[in-house]
Amino acid sequence: MGFFELTTAGAMLAKAKRELVRLECEESIDHAYNFFTTAYHVTDYLKPVLSAADHRALVTEPAIHLCADVCNKAKHMTLTRSRSDPLTHSDSGAIGGAAINSVAINASGERWVRWADGTQLELVQFAKFIIAWFEQFFAAHGITSEA
After folding, report:
1. Are 124 and 27 in contact (CB under 8 A)?
2. Per-residue pLDDT tens for 21-80?
3. Is 116 a domain residue?
4. How many CB atoms lie within 10 A of CB 45?
5. How far is the C-alpha of 36 from the C-alpha of 144, rounded, in Å?
6. In a domain? residue 103
């Protein structure tokens, strides 16, 4: 049983894609939280259509673990269950971290997540990677990614 129109894994992936568009337009915490929470929970919608072994492989995939970390960090503020607690960082991209004449030169406004093992991911690029990863996973398992 789904939630309104979110009745299939494809519908949940389509929602993640809509959240990505919002995140690309505005790198706010609201859009980052919505994207990673939605994207990680695609795994829940895949559980009924995968074998137990395929679902176990899915949720132990390193990219999905990182996605879960971002989702759970935003929800719980601190990760404690055998996962390193990632740190967040915003980079204005301005020279010296300050704007010149009120206009930041080369400002990017990127938001980053860093893990203790040295993994560092920029949110929008990571979000795009997660969507592409799920699309490949769906195709490899014969699951439609259309809502």
Report:
1. yes
2. 999 998 888 888 899 899 999 999 999 999 999 999 999 998 888 888 777 766 555 555
3. no
4. 20
5. 21
6. no
